[in-house]
Amino acid sequence: MQFLAPSTIAIAAALSIPPLVALYFLKLKRNVRVVPSTLLWKRSVEDLHVNSPFQRLRSSLLLLLQLLVLVAGAIALGRPMFQTAQAQETTNVILIDNSASMAVVEADGRTRLDEAKEQAKRVVDNMSDEAQAMVIAFCDRATVESSFDSDKAALKRKIDSIEQTQSSSTLSEAISLAEAYAQNQVIGGEDLGSDVAPESAAPDASVFLFTDGRVEDTDEVAVEKFDVGRMRVVNVGKRMDNVAIVSMDARRRYEQPEILEVTALVQNFDAEPRNFDAVLYVDGQTVDVQSVSLASGLPSEGAPDAASGRAPVGSIRTVAFDNIEFGGSGTVEVALRIDDALSTDNRAWTIIPPPRRVSVLLVYDANPFFNPLDATLRVLPIELKTMTPDQYEAADDKVLTDGRRSAFDVVVFDQHSTDRLSQGSYLFFGGTPQIDGVTAEGIVDDEVIFNWDETHPVLRHVAVEAVEVFQWRRLRLPPEAVSIVDGASSPVLAYLARGPSQYLIGAFGLIVKDKDGDFRYNTYWVHNADFIVFTYNAIQFLASNIATSGTMVARPGQPVTVPVPADADTVVIRRPDGSTDKVAAPSRQTLQYARTRHVGVYEVSPAVPGHGVFAVNLFNPTESRIEPVPALTLGAGEVSTLAASIQVNKPAWPYILIALLAVLVLEWVVYNQRVFV
Amino acid sequence: MTTYTSDNPSLLDPEFMARLDQLSLVSRKIFAGKMRGERITKRRGESVEFADYRNYVMGDDLRFLDWNIYARLERLFIKLFLQEEDLHVSVLIDVSRSMNWGRPDKGLYARKIAAAIAYIGLINFDRVSLYGYANGLQYELAGVRGRRLMFKAIEFLTRLEYNGASNLAATGKQFAIRHPQPGIVLILSDFFEKGGYEDGLRMLLSRRYDLYAIQVLSPEEIEPDLVGDLKLTDVEDDDTAEVTVGRALLNRYKQNLRAYCEQFKEFCTRRGIAYLFTSTEVPFDQIVLSYFRRRGLLK
């Protein structure tokens, strides 16, 4: 039994009991009645006194009963609670997971988030009046819904206001935030001049974590200030039947841009095998339906992959839809016709730009020698334009730029360094972009290629070990540059992304002049098929990021960079739920839009052609695996999971009031039978 | 303060009186009266009704010798005749303040009974005495005889006033001293005597009266309608009792009342006193015409 308002008891008792006792000292005022004889009355009264074994008690019994009524009333005013829940600290931190997996509708028809809110509100209900709590909702980022507050109604309102998101869940930010707030609370609570150093003031807080346990960064969570022993995980959710699209790809054939290839990777997380249809929509029209059978998503016992955590064979499958001829731009959607616990991951979208060839500008000195770049680019399915360096530097802005962006998807410089670089993608061979931090000093001619990142997209299918480059310029690059191919002392090929522009810088020229002034090949690589592959990779890599794809696809919560027309001040973004956001466009002609917590298609208007739509897909196996994690292990250690749901301290005052009524009835009975003269 | 009195008491109505004409008082004991009356007494006397013979002794009145027997047997026998005598009927009415109470009024009820008894006595040439007593005899109409004095009796009964507390002991003593001759004595009272009714009745018993104790109670005394925290004041002596009347106390009161009446009845029965309990709710004529006849007071 605990009291939510213990001081009220004392006040109520002090106010009511002394007057009652005082009343008992006052003589009862009786009505005078005349009777023919008091003989029998007196005798009767005496008889009753004699016959009642408790006759001494009888007169004081009323006082006792009335005192009992007052005491019961005072106790009821103290709001006693039956202590069914665990005792709590005065400082409570409530962390509520509102990530995508919390949207699972459980058997009782409520979502996991509803359940978590319900239980969190019970924690609030259980708090004593002096206790305070803060509420943090966390998904891919943490939001302080309420800082420390002891107003229960406000806290519950804040808990109710937590919105379901479709993001992944990460906990470390939430824990850091809570620790910071709790720390402030402790420091703020100290008297000025206290000897307690702020660092040593560990917050004495109970942490309640309401989640289904599907947290991505459990290993990274560092609990520094809180006592892990005081952290309790309240596990919500039971269902595990879910099938999800974990990734999706829609691409045009490079050689036949009007042909669209759509694939989707679907995975079964349920213990039962599932059969269902996957439907392909293009701009809302059904285009293809594929039947999918997935094996059980739980590794069978003894299976070799049981311990590795890899999905069991057959539970994950790529669905390849029939190739479709699609010349325009539009939205491609894959939807699973299945009834499972989480519907967010049953649909995925991608945006298809109209087929168009990549436009490339090659800036090179036309020399009598065969230029391998020119030859290579000409065989690629691109729109190629060439210029000499002089022509480039002299060219009109209108030729080179479209607004502030480059008019070409990729500009390739052969042996030319320039600072005339509008926003765009640039490939340099033997030259450097004249931008901050990038310099080339001297020639390296006595080193070999030493190391390379073979996973980088531009080196796909490229045998770098066979490449021999005779000399290259000693590049000095800013720290954010990524070296792709290294010599012993300086990079040979590096990638630098800066703002909306990106640069792939090759320190070597393909054809160089030797000491005699004769042109010669700097590498024989240019005669190799690998060079064509490399160039193809490089163009595609540079172009795909902005120009060719246009398929702006993001994860929930990820900010999306939206290009905006040069003359647009504001952009209206229509969200998947139909609501619109009016966003001011900064002068940079792109804007970062971060309200992408919901999956679906977002429409931008006015838009740069080809950038009018972007899609947000869940694509998160961690969230799609909705089976609750029974034990949550954070970086600091295992956090105890509450086996049952949070018990509410049941209010005891209704029972006390019933007892009070009973005593009152008893008092009435005694009053009616009591006799004293 | 509530008093339950009727202002215009009509003690007897002519119709009822006509019905009383048929009745006469009967004593369970035959008394020797002072004057010759209409009743047969134990004493042999001079009536026309023969009783017995006995031998002549010297000094007997020669007028009662049976000469016919003497002629046949030559022995002297005296004829004995039954003597008829008058009957003393005394009615003691309690006029203490407690009798001026109840609805119907106990005092009026008692006076009506007294009037009826007096009427019956008077029309049968009995000697009727009426007394009002409280703390001793206070009102007296002694020894009236004959129907024509009925108006006196009515007037006396009408005149009675209630005052003081009843004291039966003092009253019994006083009455016994003043009335040595036997007769019927009716006591009309509630018999709520704080000093006890026993002494008074014993005084009266010593004179071998044919005693009738008629206890008159009002319905309010039998079934009190009191409830709550009360200060009860005794109408006679202003004694007070602070009570909280609840079910338990009411039950106890009724139990005590029953026990008190039983005890009183027992006391009377043991000593040959005729006891009669009545509530003023019971119609008065029913008491007189039916109840008294059943108990043998009237025939």
Largest interface, Cβ cutoff 8 Å? A-B, 27 and 40 residues
Oligomer: heterodimer
- Structural class of chain B, by secondary structure, is alpha/beta
CATH secondary-structure class of the largest domain in chain B: Alpha Beta
Bin the helical content of chain B: 25-40%
* CATH-defined architecture of the largest domain in chain B: 3-Layer(aba) Sandwich
CATH architecture of the largest domain in chain A: 3-Layer(aba) Sandwich
Q: What fraction of residues of chain A sit in β-strands?
A: 25-35%
Give the uncertain stretches of chain B in residue-range form.
Answer: 1-8
Mean pLDDT across all residues of chain B, rounded? 83
CATH superfamily of the largest domain in chain B: von Willebrand factor, type A domain
Report mean pLDDT of chain A, rounded to a whole number.
81
CATH fold type of the largest domain in chain B: Rossmann fold
CATH class of the largest domain in chain A: Alpha Beta
Strand arrangement, major sheet of chain B: 5-4-3-6-7-10
CATH topology (fold) name of the largest domain in chain A? Rossmann fold
Helix content of chain A: 10-25%
